[in-house]
Amino acid sequence: MSITVYQNLTRWFLLGLLALMLLGGRLAFAGQSPAEVGAMLKAMADPAGAPFFPVVMQVLQVLTWALHILFVWTSIGGLFYAIYGFTRRDENHQRLARAMLELSKVSVSLAIVLGVAPLLFYQVIYDPLWYASANLSASWYIMFIVFLLIGYYLIWGAYFTKMKPQLAIFFSIGGVIFLLLVGFIIHVVNYQALYPEKWVEWYTSGGTTMNHSGWNIYKFNIFRYLAFLVFPAVAVTGVFMMLYAWYFGKRPEFEKSYVDFSARLGAKLALVGGAGWIVFHILYILSIPSEWQAKGSIFSWLSVLGLLLCAGVIFIAQKNPVGM
């Protein structure tokens, strides 16, 4: 048995094992009353609270999240371009599509590994908010792991069929759909956590019933989703293409025409994606409830200024993207 076959069998075995664990957990809790489950969870809570100064946890959360989201963006952006590139007959597009598929495959692995730290920091500081929100949409939250695994395997399917564009497109579309779905779930859980005053109303439908199926979505902001995930994925992947051309352009096996093509295309993607990022970031700020006082916060508009400065650099780079 080859190593590849063994690895694939191991992955499918672990996926099946996870499915059995999820089913077993649901059956185990089925016979318990909410009071019993609540008592058990309360007993598991850490009596010491946060293990260190919260501000340190917050700084580390932001830093580790920045590393995590960088590879989330290149995972999704790489698939976006791979889908487009494989539809083109031009050899430069085909070659770059294969390279971006490789980027996406590696980035998903790094995003998963680097996503553990910010999640743990978030849970340490904001666990009551996160936990309550996750319970409101519990079935979705549990399925995000399954969807992530399915998306990951589909990306590998695209990678193994990269010399067959039609199959690679099929697997890439499936992979990006599941990754976007995972991002949607995490977005919803995070966003619902910001509205604790509405939890009881959501859970009881205004006092008329008990929504304990876990399949309800109570709060979603399309501007936030596009500004945090979709357009940054395009922009950052475009920047990566420019860096890809700059780094590999020095090697003799990389023709100048291909290097220039990759750099100029990356610069255009970065500019278009960056413009969309700025627009939807501003729209998200304007959509934030007034009582949060985000519209008048200096940090909100400093974030816009930072994006504008980055867009300015990308605009200047259009003339000579490899040289930048």
Walk me through the structure:
With 324 residues, this protein is mainly alpha-helical. The protein folds into two domains: 52-211, Up-down Bundle (Four Helix Bundle (Hemerythrin (Met), subunit A)); 221-324. α3 packs across α4 (91-136), α5 packs antiparallel against α6 and α6 packs across α8. The protein has helices at 3-30, 34-44, 54-87, 91-136, 138-160, 165-192, 199-204, 222-248, 256-287, 298-317.
Concise structural overview:
The protein is mainly α. The chain has 10 helices and no strands.
Q: How would a textbook summarize the main sheet?
A: none
Measured distance between first and last alpha carbons: 48 Å
Helix content, binned percent? over 70%
CATH topology annotation of the largest domain? Four Helix Bundle (Hemerythrin (Met), subunit A)
Rough outline: globular
Strand coverage percent = under 5%
| Continuous helix count | 10
C-alpha Rg, in Å?
Answer: 22 Å
- What are the secondary-structure elements, in order, as H or E? HHHHHHHHHH
CATH architecture of the largest domain: Up-down Bundle
Q: If you average the pLDDT, what whole number results? A: 90
How would you classify the helix and strand content by structural class?
Answer: mainly alpha
